[in-house]
Amino acid sequence: MKICMPTMGNNGFNEQIGQHFGRCPTYTIIDTETDKVTVIQNTSEHMGGMGLPAEILQQKGINILICRGLGRRAIMLFDQFKIQVFIGAQGTVNDSYIMWKNDQLQAVNSIDDACQQHAFRDHNHKPGEICR
């Protein structure tokens, strides 16, 4: 299984989870069968490239997205691409991976779980705060 997290750089398990899913510079991918970590650049249209993040991650074979939170449209796209989403991630990739393995993250079941303050310019959260 492949798990993906939006991240701020290339430090693998030690990288910080990004605050805004679509505009993070990188995505860190963990293969749960091998614990191999791969970091890819966010080449989506949000970063001046082509395609939406959900499309790009689906093409990479991602099964699960772990993030702080995300908006309604992203939730619908991940559902469409059959990628399960968990919110509430914080700290590093390793911190969030452990939280996921210990069932400490919230599974997104509907668009009602979307961030209620989703605006690109004013999208800030306090440490540990779930995007609502």
Descriptive notes:
The chain is of the alpha/beta class. The chain has one domain (2-113): Dinitrogenase iron-molybdenum cofactor biosynthesis domain (Nucleotidyltransferase, domain 5, 2-Layer Sandwich), CATH 3.30.420. 19% of the residues lie in helices and 21% in strands. It is built from three helices and six strands. The chain has helices spanning 53-59, 72-80, 93-101; strands at 2-7, 26-31, 36-41, 64-67, 84-87, 106-107. Strands 3-2-1-4-5-6 form a six-stranded mixed beta sheet, with helices on both faces. β2 and β3 form a beta hairpin. The termini are far apart. Residues 118-123 and 125-132 have low confidence and may be disordered.
In short:
The protein is built from 3 helices and 6 strands; from the N terminus they run E-E-E-H-E-H-E-H-E.
Tell me the fraction of residues in β-strands, as a range: 15-25%
CATH class category label: Alpha Beta
Number of helices: 3
CATH superfamily: Dinitrogenase iron-molybdenum cofactor biosynthesis domain
Mean pLDDT level: 85
Strand order of the largest sheet: 3-2-1-4-5-6
Q: Strand-and-helix sequence, N→C?
A: EEEHEHEHE
Terminal-residue CA separation: 28 Å
Number of strands: 6
Low-confidence stretches: 118-123, 125-132
- Identify the overall geometry: globular
* Percentage of residues in helical conformation: 10-25%
CATH level 3 topology: Nucleotidyltransferase, domain 5
